[in-house]
Design brief:
By secondary structure, the chain is an all-alpha fold. It is built from seven helices and no strands. The relative contact order is 0.11. It has one domain. InterPro entries: ARM-type_fold (IPR016024), TBCD (IPR033162), TBCD_C (IPR022577).
Length: about 150
């Protein structure tokens, strides 16, 4: 289903929703995608969701920042293959949608995406991911503390 959604996005089937900021369809689509990959360990599903999220970035308004946040969460994913795939697709996405990144920071964003070893240790990767968040004006993802058993 995610692969089909990626094809629909890539072929302009949802272009009608790009004119209006935060169109309810776009917001609902993001909610459904987040729910679909929540706590997933299915690499194919996660990879498909990366492509869908990158395609959804064409939507305008606050929903775009939320889509970027989801992609940046995937840049800090426990699976190195997901981090590398996300970085590669985000790189292509930035090239495709030139209005995503201010011209002043474009070179730095591109070099962080291409020069970072996304299969490195998580603390190193998350530092670079947070740098991207700052450059794009997206809130940094926060680690949610695990509940202490018996409390």
């Amino acid at each position: 289903l995610l692969k089909m959604l990626d094809q629909l996005l890539a072929n302009g089937c949802f272009d009608i929703f790009t004119a209006e900021e935060n169109h309810p369809f776009c917001v609902k689509l993001l909610t459904l995608c987040k729910e679909e990959i929540k706590k997933s360990k299915d690499i194919q599903k996660l990879r498909s969701s990366i492509a869908v999220l990158c395609g959804m970035v064409q939507f305008n308004g606050d929903v775009r920042k939320k889509i970027l946040l989801q992609l940046f969460l995937l840049l800090g994913h426990p699976f190195p293959v997901i981090r590398k795939s996300t970085a590669s697709q985000v790189y292509e996405m930035v090239l495709t949608y030139s209005d995503l990144v201010d011209a002043e920071v474009l070179d730095e964003v591109m070099s962080v995406l291409s020069d970072t070893a996304w299969d490195a240790e998580l603390p190193v990767v998350r530092e670079q991911r947070n740098r991207l968040c700052d450059l794009l004006g997206v809130p940094r993802p926060q680690l949610v503390p695990k509940p202490i058993p018996g409390s």
